[in-house]
Every structure is written in structure tokens, then in C-alpha cells.
Amino acid sequence: DVVFAIDHPGVERTRDVVLNVSGLLWGENPHVDAARYRHDVVEVARRLQADGRTVSLLAHVVGGDDRPGDNDRYPLDGLRRELGDVEVIVPDGPGALASVRDTVGSAELVIGSRMHACLNSLSMGTPAIPLAYSRKFAPLLSQLGWDHVVDLREDEVVERTLAQVASPGLSADAAALRGRADALVDRFTDALSELGASLR
Length: 200
What we know:
The protein is of the alpha/beta class and 200 residues long. 47% of the residues lie in helices and 13% in strands. Helix 2 (34-50) runs parallel beside helix 7 (157-165).
């Protein structure tokens, strides 16, 4: 994914767990059972809080207010009522991508229902646990050598997510992935340079 070619300067780790909840999945949708998704996401966040973790909420896709399913802001008011006074990050405007990358780069861990929230996290060297809702997640993440994925269409989402959170190798695996991505980007850049030179 081209996100790994974007500059990834070091960002101070000032946040604990950044949770991206999808507006697409929050209401009726063709991918997962919406009621179960809402329950599982809230339960994961509550269990993390009970374990002393600090949870921040990130809206990654911010669409028009007239289309809730395209807008991750849609679930946020309800989540704040459920979880208490948690930090809410809603990047918007021309600097939205940079804001997203700064946010995920500042986290110890990202749990995300939007694939590109997770890819941005991994490209910044931050461990990410994708909550996958379609077949597109697994092949791309597998190609990157990242297997810390929870499929929302399977049972025991909460327990499987928390097991991934507790995985002792998350940070090391994320650093290794970032190294592999750098090597692949360098190879791609070199190949483009060679092709350009041959066409002159």
C-alpha cells in the first residue's frame, strides 16, 4: 500500500489505545451484524478501561452528515455516553491525513475497523489490531506479514481482540513490518528510477 511510502517521522507516544469505530458498521450494513458490532466494540473499550488503559476515539472516515454510514463521527456521541469523558479525535479539512498520522503515531496501540486507519498506524510503526469485516483485509495484511487481525464475522470477537492486545510481540512485530516496508519501498523506487533512465 502506498501509505508506507509517506514520510513517517517519529512522533512522541502521548496516547495509550486509539480506537477507531466505523460508522459504516455501526448501523445496518451488509458486512456484519450491527448490534453485535456495537456490543463488541463497547465491551472491548470497557474491558481495556477496567484494565487501566486509556482509550481515545478516532474518526478516520469523515463524510457528509447526511450519510451516517460514511461518517465515523456517527457513533461518537453514543460511545462517549458509554465510556465516559474520553478523548475524541475528528480530523477534518486539508490537514486531515497528517492529523490522522500524527494521532496514530502518538499511540501505543491502535484498534481499528477501517483498514486504512490500521495501515496508517503500521506505516508509522504503531501496532494495530484490525477488526476485519471483509475479505480485503487478510490478503493485504498477510502480504505485509501482519497476522494480528480479528475477523468480526467470527465468534468471540472481544476475547480474541483482548488476546491480541496482550500479545507480547506486538511492538517488535510492528517495528519489523516497518523495516520490511522500507526495504520494499526502496526496491520499488530503485526500479522506477531504472525504468525512467531506460526511457530517456
